[in-house]
């Protein structure tokens, strides 16, 4: 949200905003993730990646998304940067994008979109020119990272399920255990029902974003 250099933008889309301290935003941050990262972090990460074919990386987008955070933990960093109070100060002083779409998800237990909306509308440098829309959509904090999984042939589904069983065995007793179990059930009958519902949520998110971008483009054409 804050840049050292000027960035020309027509608008920003801010999803699942959260500005909590790491220990509050991620419940297992201090007792589990930090110790795990500090002991054999690089080996653990590479071992998991080596075990994951491309199909599993599609199922587990967080593996690659969180790698930089994971390595920061290994180096002893135990808090997000900038800290929450510094983030709010930067927004108040420097945030300059007038057109904003804020998206919150109904099952997101750590969402702070309402607080962000308050800061933007009454406390930020752009408050007097603010054009802000807020949408509440089905889903949780991780929905923007999820992908629509295609139907696959039975043979491939069996291979993925067997791979999940292997990962579950290798990760037993570690924080990866529950994730590995989810991989093993990715293409079961129950998971197909879940994926069908999840696909609807992802499609709605995409449609919401596309509609907002299109309206922004139309407004620019009218002004020109």
From TrEMBL:
Matching PANTHER family: OS04G0405600 PROTEIN (PTHR34127)
Pfam families in UniProt: DUF1350
Name the UniProt record assigns to this protein: Uncharacterized protein
Organism from which the protein derives: Erythranthe guttata
């Amino acid at each position: 949200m804050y840049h050292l250099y000027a960035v020309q933008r027509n608008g920003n889309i801010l999803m699942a905003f959260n500005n909590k301290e790491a220990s509050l935003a991620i419940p297992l941050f201090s007792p589990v993730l930090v110790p795990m990262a500090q002991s054999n972090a690089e080996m653990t990460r590479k071992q998991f990646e080596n075990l994951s074919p491309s199909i599993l990386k599609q199922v587990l987008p967080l593996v690659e998304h969180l790698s930089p955070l994971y390595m920061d933990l290994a180096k002893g960093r135990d808090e997000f940067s900038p800290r929450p109070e510094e983030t709010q100060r930067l927004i108040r002083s420097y945030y300059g994008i007038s057109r904003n779409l804020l998206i919150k998800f109904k099952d997101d237990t750590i969402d702070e979109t309402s607080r962000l909306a308050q800061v933007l509308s009454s406390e930020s440098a752009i408050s007097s020119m603010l054009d802000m829309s807020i949408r509440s959509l089905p889903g949780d904090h991780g929905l923007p990272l999820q992908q629509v999984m295609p139907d696959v042939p039975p043979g491939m589904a069996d291979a993925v399920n067997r791979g999940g069983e292997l990962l579950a065995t290798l990760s037993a007793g570690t924080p990866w255990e529950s994730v590995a179990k989810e991989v093993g059930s990715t293409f079961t009958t129950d998971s197909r029902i879940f994926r069908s519902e999840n696909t609807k949520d992802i499609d709605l998110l995409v449609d919401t974003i596309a509609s907002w971008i299109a309206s922004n483009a139309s407004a620019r054409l009218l002004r020109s």
